[in-house]
Design goal:
Length: about 725
């Protein structure tokens, strides 16, 4: 009998046995359609066997072997097994997560031949100045095509409405489809700069290494890390001259933000015009994502740029992994398979025997520590790459002794006025959207709380709504206090909208743009805004962390930071690590080009070591301070943690479950520390109670051994009406 063990997307940690019809052959990694309960499901064959423990009569048959897509390579299956095992997530769910949506269904999928677009004879003889001026996008596409043929993805990179414009141009007969030329064996490379000595050293260290090696590229903002990535990619793309060695390799570049991928995509396309590049992120349609994934799997796409899920892309020629902004918390998935894409990438590089580069101006303490103890190799860039670019001057404004208007101090207003006069741009950074974080009654002290959560309703004055940022609940702003009837309700604290309107009142002539999740909700909105900023159609930007990351606005010379203090004394021991990274990043936006930058931070604690280190641009001292604190308190990276989270509508059920889990853990008497059951930071959310239980050990292996023993006991606990999950290496 031919039996296959199939991974299915169900919450059970087993594989499922099926028989194969006579004469059918499959290999591990192939997709199959199988009966499951009353439905049919798509699964992935993990093992082929001759026998099953199940009685022959109970085994059902595979309905269909899904062709058209090559099987997942063994290497990827091994990676997924590791993740399932390490993060204690069901294998089937883990394997299916790695597939794009289309491949999780039984509809036929094949890799489409990529088409390119080129100007037709009539298109070439077209006089562009004769086209109507308002057809901006058509103009842009035609101009770009005058330089040569382009793929659909390359055209899309030129404008969000490129597909519509392209359709019109095809209909008009000005553009036609042509075949894609075969990939060249060597890759052209637009070499913009001669590397600095530090950059060259970093590049050499990686290219001269043999096999696996993890490199921490610690370079201040603007030190030319991206340039190093480009040089490393160029090296990897070339076929290896030694006989019998690989052909040109593939590069996986992971980035934290989907917002940044279109920019980076364009950037790397321009640097490597001949190399096929695909991106993989959740902003793509299912169809696009599947095609891009298949192009990576086929080896045709040589550069794969993606957010965390891209770490599971099959890459037959993988030769280098780069994780940009490796400290960023968005590499950690916060539900389902709670993996860290950075850590999985390191495992993958090791498994494959290739180098991995972790880049950051403010490395995570985990990586920094690993570099200190020699587990990673440290590559330092201590200077800005462009000779004339200096680091911005960072100063604190002590909020205890200045006058504030809607959260903005006089000295900051003065600095803004100077920039307006000089025609330079400013950025005001505040990590709260909405008008004010809460509405308060001046008579009885009533606060606008959410009826479903332990959190507060945020005032959104533009929409005249109170909105919960945790559960999405919203209601109209009341005319009087619901508790005492008093009509005088006051906003407390500040958010982006409040700062925006206060600044608009103060500087009526200024062109102010607010960038936060509310203002960029519509598709393409952020692209339009970024263009406005580039075109210098904006004087003052007011925004959240969306603005902190990776954008390069050369005319921006002032950054003002409002309200960073809550993170200084937070109960989350990582909050201040995160704040430093965020502020260093946002400070890095100031003075990128030839104009010096200035950063003003409004704080009540200007002497806090965090601000002292920030002013001195001294990450190392700060990191040492934090590491010493973590060591004495017994926190990561000196220990390894796992968090058992539970949530449910009945409070007692949640706590009883965790209590029993805790007792079971203690009874095992294994060498791990088991803490008490505590409410989550937000103890109630969307009508559910949330609590957790922490377990830790100073040895990763001991923690894993414990989790493997504990997990089956958890499965056996009564938990009908609650959801629970294990979070290994929680953030
Ligand atoms: P990072 O990624 O470290 O923030 P970038 O790679 O974006 O830094 O480089 C910052 C700026 O310096 C960019 O405008 C880049 O073009 C320029 N640059 C990078 N390397 C060099 C170099 N070797 N010589 C001159 N300019 C450089
Ligand atoms: Zn009241
Ligand atoms: Zn709520």
């Amino acid at each position: 009998m031919s039996v296959v063990r199939v991974a299915l997307d169900v919450p059970l940690s087993t594989l499922f046995d099926y028989t194969l019809a006579h004469g059918t052959a499959v290999v591990p990694g192939q997709r199959v359609l199988v009966p499951f309960g009353r439905k049919q499901m798509v699964g992935v064959v993990m093992e082929c066997a001759v026998d099953s423990e199940l009685a022959a009569t109970r085994i059902k048959q595979v309905v269909q072997v899904l062709e058209g897509v090559p099987p997942l390579p063994d290497e990827l299956l091994a990676l997924l097994r590791f993740c399932s095992d390490y993060y204690h997530h069901p294998l089937g769910a883990t394997v299916l997560l790695a597939l794009p949506a289309r491949l999780r269904s039984s509809q036929p999928v094949t890799l489409r031949e990529a088409a390119q677009y080129t100007l037709s004879d009539s298109g070439r003889s077209l006089d562009l100045s004769q086209l109507p001026k308002r057809k901006v996008v058509q103009q842009r596409l035609l101009t770009a095509l005058q330089q040569g043929a382009l793929s659909a993805a390359q055209l899309r990179a030129l404008s969000p409405s490129a597909p519509t414009a392209l359709k019109t141009l095809l209909q008009a007969g000005w553009v036609e489809i042509c075949a894609v030329p075969a990939a060249p064996s060597t890759f052209a490379f637009n070499n913009a700069h001669t590397l600095t000595a530090q950059q060259q050293q970093a590049v050499d260290a990686v290219t001269q290494s043999n096999g696996y090696g993890c490199f921490l590229l610690h370079g201040i903002t603007g030190s030319g890390k991206t340039e190093i990535y480009v040089h490393l990619m160029h090296h990897v793309l070339q076929p290896c001259p030694e006989p019998g060695r690989r052909e040109g390799g593939q590069v996986l570049l992971l980035v934290p933000e989907i917002n940044l991928t279109p920019q980076l995509e364009n950037y790397f396309r321009n640097r490597f015009p001949d190399a096929e590049l695909v991106s993989l992120h959740s902003g793509l349609s299912d169809g696009e994502r599947t095609q891009n994934w298949l192009r990576a799997q086929s080896g045709r796409a040589r550069i794969v740029l993606g957010t965390r899920l891209a770490v599971f892309t099959p890459l037959p020629q993988l030769a280098l992994i780069i994780v940009d902004e490796e400290h960023d918390s968005s590499y950690k998935q916060q539900d389902g398979l709670r993996y860290s894409a950075r850590d999985v990438a390191i495992f993958r590089a090791n498994q494959r025997g290739v180098p991995i580069v972790l880049g950051s101006a403010t490395p995570s303490l985990e990586s920094y520590y690993n570099a200190q103890i020699g587990r990673y190799r440290l590559l330092r860039l201590t200077q800005r790459a462009m000779a004339q670019a200096r680091l911005p001057e960072i100063r604190c404004i002590n909020t205890s002794n200045v006058i504030m208007q809607h959260g903005v101090s006089e000295p900051l207003l003065k600095a803004l006025a100077e920039r307006l006069q000089r025609g330079e741009q400013s950025l005001i950074f505040i990590n709260r959207r909405g008008y004010a974080p809460v509405l308060m009654c001046t008579a009885c002290g009533w606060l606008s709380g959410c009826s479903n959560c332990a959190g507060k309703l945020v005032l959104h004055l533009n929409d005249r709504l109170l909105r919960c940022h945790h559960c999405g609940h919203q209601e109209r702003v009341p005319h009087a206090c619901p508790s005492c009837g008093n009509a005088d309700l006051q906003p407390v604290g500040i958010g982006t909208q409040r700062v925006e309107s206060a600044l608009q009142e103060h500087f009526p002539q200024a062109r102010i743009l607010r960038v936060d999740r509310d203002s960029t909700r519509n598709k393409g909105a952020w692209n339009v805004m970024r263009q406005q900023i580039q075109d210098e159609a904006v004087d003052i930007l007011v925004g959240t962390q969306m603005l902190a990351k990776g954008h390069d606005f050369p005319n921006l010379t002032l950054v003002g930071v409002l309200n960073p203090d809550s993170a200084l004394y937070s109960s989350d021991f990582r909050a201040s690590e995160k704040l430093f990274a965020q502020l260093a990043q946002v400070a890095g936006r100031a003075g990128r080009a030839d104009k010096p930058g200035e950063v003003l931070i409004q704080t009540a604690f200007p002497d806090h070591p965090l601000f002292r280190a920030l002013r001195a641009h001294d990450y190392d001292t700060w990191a040492q301070t934090l590491l010493a604190e973590r060591q004495s308190a017994g926190f990561p990276p000196f220990v390894y943690q796992a968090l058992l989270r539970a949530e449910g509508k009945q409070k007692t059920e949640v706590y009883t479950f965790l209590q029993q889990a805790q007792e079971a853990a203690v009874a095992l008497n294994m060498p791990v520390e088991v803490y008490g059951v505590v409410p989550a930071a937000l103890p109630r959310r969307a009508n559910h109670y949330l609590a957790h239980l922490l377990v830790q050990s100073d040895k990763r292996k001991l923690l894993q051994q414990f989790l493997h023993t504990w997990r089956p006991l958890l499965d056996a606990l009564p938990a009908q009406k609650l959801r629970w999950s294990l979070d290994v290496d929680p953030l």
